[in-house]
Design brief:
- A hairpin with a 2-residue loop joins strand 1 and strand 2.
- The chain is built from 13 helices and 2 strands; from the N terminus they run H-H-H-H-H-H-E-E-H-H-H-H-H-H-H.
- Helix 3 crosses helix 10, helix 4 runs antiparallel to helix 10 and helix 8 crosses helix 10.
- By secondary structure, it is mostly helical.
- The two termini are about 25 Å apart.
Length: about 325
């Protein structure tokens, strides 16, 4: 009985500690800067969190199988630059271009998944390869220049609001709900956890491990395509430098949220709280006029702390 109570207490602390940290950090920042709790600033934080939150959801699904995706930032850049080029030409409907950008992300994710699953290549190496390839294709397509003059209707995806709620936040909520249903209500989700928990046991149980491992990277690519649309609309242009270091932010939110890099354990809501925590930290440092160089140091220390906690938890 005592052991069960101890296990319950540990799980409770792991589950709710992040929420307490976010609330406490918000209270501290509200005293440090009077601008933190203003409506304009909070809406800006929500828009910033949305992009990383969507990428982190895809990253979480990948990490649950014991993989990792270092290419998300470059896929965001390539999907966004293609969308911007098509929008500038004004030859296709906006809805079709949005679908094309998402499909491009999925196809690049398929590249990652195919080599990881069917060639047994290390996820780190495969996605590092895609990170370089996608970034290179982005510069080739754009000749290194931003693509602007995008339709006003498209920009509403990144800058608009519905009933006071930013459109990017609404998209994040929809993606979160769909991904949660996929992981908790469908067989696919159970298979993802099984593959990450014990790949050999999952294979013996009749699970198509290779297909599951390939599909998680496709889903990560789709998340990149969605994030690319939001980012392109938010900055009003397709930027060849877009998405730089986004993979680090996504991994940080995933690990901070309690997902194990070794696979088999993690929750999407924890990832969202992790993304919120990172967003608040970045916003708070901006309000305090802390140099971006020091912000990188702080972010690196947060990632290191989360990894150490994950390592301790695995032991």
């Amino acid at each position: 009985m005592k052991e069960m109570t101890k296990r319950f207490d540990r799980n409770w602390v792991q589950t709710y500690m992040l929420i307490f940290i976010v609330i406490g950090l918000g209270i501290i920042l509200s005293f440090i800067s009077g601008n933190f709790l203003t409506g304009t600033n909070l809406l800006n934080v929500l828009r910033q969190i949305s992009i990383n939150g969507i990428l982190a959801i895809g990253m979480t699904i990948v990490c649950l199988t014991g993989g990792i995706d270092l290419s998300v930032g470059s896929i965001v850049a390539f999907s966004g630059i293609i969308a911007a080029g098509l929008l500038r030409d004004k030859e296709y409907p906006i809805a079709l271009i949005v679908l094309i950008a998402i499909a491009i992300g999925g196809l690049l994710g398929l590249y990652n998944g195919y080599f990881v699953a069917y060639w047994n290549a290390a996820p780190f190496v495969v996605t590092l390869s895609m990170m370089t390839i996608a970034r290179g294709m982005t510069y080739v397509y754009s000749t290194g220049r931003p693509i602007s003059n995008l339709p006003t209707e498209f920009l509403a995806i990144g800058k608009g609001s519905i009933a006071g709620v930013p459109v990017p936040t609404i998209i994040l909520i929809i993606v979160f709900i769909l991904a949660s249903i996929m992981l908790t209500k469908l067989k696919f989700g159970r298979y993802v956890y099984a593959v990450g928990g014990n790949e050999n046991a999952a294979m013996v149980s009749g699970i198509n491990v290779k297909r599951i491992k390939m599909m998680v990277y496709v889903l990560s690519g789709i998340a990149c395509g969605i994030a690319a649309i939001i980012l392109t609309a938010r900055v009003s242009a397709g930027l060849p430098t877009a998405g730089e270091s986004y993979e680090l932010d996504a991994i940080a939110a995933t690990v901070i949220g309690g997902t194990s890099l070794s696979g088999g354990r993690g929750r999407l809501w924890g990832t969202i709280v992790g993304a919120i925590l990172l967003g608040i930290v970045n916003n708070g440092l901006d309000l305090m006029n802390v140099s971006s160089f020091y912000q990188q140091i702080v972010k690196g220390l947060i990632i290191l702390g989360a990894i150490l906690i994950d390592s301790k938890r695995n032991q």
